[in-house]
Amino acid sequence: MAFKFRLNSKAPPVPSTQFVLISMLGAFLAIGITAWLSKISGFSWLMAPFGASCVLVFGLPDSPLAQPRSVIGGHLITTLVGLTMLYAVGDFWWSEALAVGLALALMQITRTVHAPAGANPLLVMATHPGFGFLITPVLLGALSIVGVGYLINKLRQRGSYPRYWL
Description:
The structure is a single chain. This protein has one domain (17-156). It is 63% helix and 0% strand. It contains 6 helices and no strands. It has helices at 17-41, 49-59, 68-88, 93-110, 120-127, 135-156. The termini are far apart.
């Protein structure tokens, strides 16, 4: 006899097993491809915020935060803010804080809010990359995640992802 414990919760229901497995496959492929491309190209296609991007693209594909506009635009904008702050004023506690605040404001204004991208200014300040960081890993990695998201989410339901491009 199965025991079902039920709380009066307003949390969303547990997704179907198929949805969970397809989500897991998508995240595996997106990160696996970017990790493999890192190995063969000698350039990093990975950064930690991409793991969180996969959670949105594959786990919550209907969310505005998971749409290509937000994934790609959010990562590019926030990284550019971080790089600009780093090279214009330097790496200080207040420039880190200001960079995250400015990045959020610009994502809101451009309608590209993507929560994982909020970490990018801090990543930039911690690692001090050059402006080439915008191309790899940021642009190429984000494009990889969106590309895999497009293909994998077709397995769930044709035409389900993205909800919009621009």
